[in-house]
């Protein structure tokens, strides 16, 4: 078997692998569990994620990616190798060509680190593309026409906002306020208001089940959820009930950062392209697009239609799949080390 073409969405929260002709074959948390004493990797992905907050002292579950870039090179490489092995990406005779995504404003050093990690984990030729561009393609936008398209990709570590035309990014920004920050906001709110310590996984459940940032979020029928944690005063387990109205207040500051960043991108957009965006609307992709009401809030603030892409979590991975078909044309865009 000759080398395959593989697309990787190397996210802060999740890693998705798309194999040409097969679609998305892997979607697992970007977590590695290591034994602190021996420095051995014990588990990767879903198995390691189950250990988060539940391990004895000598075992730590870490995220080797931070804010869309590599924070721990060796463990990123170990994680990628594990995932590529799991999907049988490497054959005996040849190595796969890999297309990997990165945030828009990372440095060339950070880009090289991503390429090097992909090469060391078994890639032959490694191509790198900017995330919002790939997300736009995965969301079904035709970015190769001479007209303006805007995409807001809210991931785990970063939110990438870009206006695209003629297959390239016209204006873009990347901010470190995204899904992970929402979790931290919820944790801090519960800690401050209820003197209760909860884990990241509990915060994520609150975010997906009751959180809303819709403009009329406070007037809507509040949803509530029982959560458990450790009382900071007594040290004992305790259960509280949290409502969507409370979480609305906790998330507003971070959500406003995203709104402001989107406004800044629109302010720098040529007027002809702005007119196109009013017609076509803005597409929301990434896991953060699933936050209840974020599309309504952005539409109200930006004064343009805002649409959540059909499968926001998989837009980048699906986009790499479409771009793999054009890999040969991209050969000249390969970043050399």
Automatic annotation (TrEMBL):
Coiled coil: none annotated. Pfam families: MreB_Mbl. It is found in: Cytoplasm. InterPro entries: ATPase_NBD (IPR043129), MreB (IPR004753), MreB_MamK-like (IPR056546). It comes from the Bacteria. ATP binds at residues 12-14, 156-158, 204-207, 287-290. Keywords: ATP-binding, Cell shape, Cytoplasm, Nucleotide-binding. The keyword Repeat does not apply. The keyword Cytoplasm applies. Signal peptide: none annotated. Belongs to the FtsA/MreB family. Forms polymers. Forms membrane-associated dynamic filaments that are essential for cell shape determination. Acts by regulating cell wall synthesis and cell elongation, and thus cell shape. A feedback loop between cell geometry and MreB localization may maintain elongated cell shape by targeting cell wall growth to regions of negative cell wall curvature. This is Cell shape-determining protein MreB. The lineage of its organism: Bacteria, Bacillati, Bacillota, Bacilli, Bacillales.
């Amino acid at each position: 078997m000759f080398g395959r073409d593989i697309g990787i969405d190397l996210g802060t929260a999740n890693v998705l692998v798309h194999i040409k002709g097969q679609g998305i074959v892997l979607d697992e948390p970007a977590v590695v569990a290591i034994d602190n004493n021996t420095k051995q990797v014990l588990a990767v992905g879903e198995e390691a994620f189950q250990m988060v907050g539940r391990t004895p002292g000598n075992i730590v579950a870490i995220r080797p990616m931070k804010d869309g870039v590599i924070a721990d090179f060796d463990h990123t490489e170990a994680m990628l190798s594990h995932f590529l092995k799991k999907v049988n990406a490497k054959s005996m005779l040849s190595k796969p060509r890999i297309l990997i995504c990165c945030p828009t404003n990372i440095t060339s050093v950070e880009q090289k680190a991503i390429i090097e990690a992909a090469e060391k984990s078994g890639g032959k030729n490694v191509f790198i593309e900017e995330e919002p561009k790939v997300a736009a393609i995965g969301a079904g936008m035709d970015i190769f026409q001479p007209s303006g398209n805007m995409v807001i990709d809210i991931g785990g570590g970063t939110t990438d906002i870009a206006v695209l035309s003629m297959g390239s990014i016209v204006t873009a920004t990347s901010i470190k306020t995204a899904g992970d920050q929402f979790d931290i906001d919820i944790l801090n709110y519960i800690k401050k208001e209820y003197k209760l310590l909860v884990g990241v996984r509990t915060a994520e459940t609150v975010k997906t089940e009751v959180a809303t940032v819709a403009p009329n979020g406070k007037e809507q029928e509040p949803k509530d959820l029982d959560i458990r944690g450790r009382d900071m005063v007594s040290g004992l387990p305790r259960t509280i009930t949290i409502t969507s109205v409370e979480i609305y207040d906790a998330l507003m500051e971070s959500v406003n950062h995203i709104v402001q960043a989107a406004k800044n991108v629109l302010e720098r957009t040529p007027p002809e392209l702005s007119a196109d965006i009013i017609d076509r609307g803005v597409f929301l992709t990434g896991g953060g697009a699933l936050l209840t009401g974020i599309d309504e809030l952005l539409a109200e603030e930006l004064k343009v239609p805002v649409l959540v892409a059909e499968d926001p979590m998989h837009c980048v991975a699906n986009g790499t799949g479409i771009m793999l078909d054009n890999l040969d044309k991209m050969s000249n865009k390969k970043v050399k080390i």
